Amino acid sequence: MTLKVGIVVGETSGDKLGVGLIRALHRLYPDLELYGILGPRLLELELELSKTESFYPMERLSVMGLVEPLIRIPELFKIRRGLLKRFKANPPDVFIGIDAPDFNLGLERRLKERGIPTVHYVSPTVWAWRQGRIHTIRKSVDLMLTLFPFETKIYDTHKMSACFVGHPFADEIPIEIDTNSAKQALGFDPARPLVAVLPGSRDGELKRLSEPYLLAIKRCYQKRSYLQFVAPLVSEKHKEYLQELKKIIAPEVPLKLIVGNTRGALSACDVALVTSGTATLEVMLHKKPMVVAYSMHPLTYYIAKKLVKIPYIAQPNLLAEELLVPEYIQEKVKPYFLAESILQQLNASYDRDKLIKKFTDIHLSLRQNASETAANVIRELLVSKRTS
After folding, report:
1. Cα–Cα distance between 90 and 382 in angstroms, integer?
2. CB–CB of 344/350 below 8 Å?
3. How far apart (Å, rounded) are the C-alpha atoms in residues 227 and 36?
4. What is the secondary structure of 264-319 as a DSSP string?
5. Distance between CA atoms of 37 and 106, rounded to whole angstroms?
């Protein structure tokens, strides 16, 4: 039986999630066609699937914040209209929107109205802000797949179909990491501390945070010249940008820039300077101390402060419901603060064992065989739709 899957992923983390889910669905449906907006990892599945086609580049959806998307609204609406036209001409058996809720929920609602089963993978943060969106979600989504256990509560309250599937990264990343071997694999000295620098996967994050990050590690290097540094980046374009900026800001710092292999860098590092987002979860799953930072457009930040009702931004802190890792937001994203926090976590007196124990407990709670669980729940949805 052929299964035609429409899909839209809006950024790198969604592309990673999508690969595991589609492979699990492919095991259930060997003749699987995939089309919509695919990231580079999903496009690599073309040799495994019956068909893959991306109608638009994923990067056109990679926009963050409250103000920035307003500039792109005409283009985003045009893309959504184009997708609807294509899905109407060749209806999928199921549509899966991965994250990008502001784009995907509107698309899902229109597809659901046409009788196409809709699945949304990664719950919007209705528990943190804009809780009124739950009514839009109800109209748009047949099945919500959540990554974290606390997220299903609000859907249960509104009697919506939601399933906690765990996080695929928790399944993929080992509980214990051999840091020394990972350092050697990347060409670093196992005897010397390694700092990983992750400025973010979006262009805007890279441009806002690269300078304070480079100045922070420059300060660290000035204080401890034996430190090593690595920056795993999502693309050659990001590598070139950081390389040119480094020549101006911190030419003396031995920072190794690599494209991809984020997990290799996180396995090897002793501490990470990381931009808030999914990357903080990956650092936690690698059991590494971290310094988390985030900066956004000033107007976006002003509005967000009024609307967002959560005490933390880093996923480890949200999951633990306590401040496990330091956070620096907006005007606090200063090289001095970041550098001092990095050095503090490299000190011998820092209690890494306690942090690693908490990280490990969270890791185990998220290990739910996520991709297979999600694929099976989607199959159950399709069977129920056919028999109803």
Report:
1. 18
2. yes
3. 44
4. HHHHH-SEEEEESSHHHHHHHHTT--EEEEE---HHHHHHHHHH---S--SHHHHH
5. 15
Encode pLDDT of 292-330 as tens digits. Answer: 998 866 666 555 665 566 778 889 998 998 999 999 998
CA distance 283 to 147: 16
Q: What is the pLDDT of residues 230-245, one digit of tens each?
A: 999 989 999 999 999 9
SS (H, E, C) the chain: CEEEEEEEECCHHHHHHHHHHHHHHHHHCCEEEEEEECCHHHHHHHHCCCEEEECCCHHHHCCCCCCHHHHHHHHHHHHHHHHHHHHHHCCCCEEEEECCHHHHHHHHHHHHHCCCCEEEECCCCCCCCCCCHHHHHHHHCCEEEECCHHHHHHHHHCCCCEEECCCHHHHHCCCCCCHHHHHHHCCCCCCCCEEEEECCCCHHHHHHHHHHHHHHHHHHHHHCCCCEEEEEECCHHHHHHHHHHHHHHCCCCCEEEEECCHHHHHHHCCEEEEECCHHHHHHHHCCCCEEEEECCCHHHHHHHHHHCCCCCCCHHHHHHCCCCCCEEEHHHCCHHHHHHHHHHHHCCCCCHHHHHHHHHHHHHHHCCCHHHHHHHHHHHHHHHHHHC
Q: What is the distance between the alpha carbons of residues 199 and 196, in angstroms, rounded to a whole number?
A: 10
What domains appear along the chain, each with residue ranges and CATH number? 2-166+368-387 (3.40.50.2000), 172-366 (3.40.50.2000)
pLDDT band at residue 153 using 50, 70 and 90 as cut-offs: confident
d(CA 309, CA 128): 5
Query: How many H helices and E strands in the chain?
Result: 17, 13
* CA distance linking residue 196 with residue 282, whole number of Å: 12
Tokens at residue 167, please?
């996080």
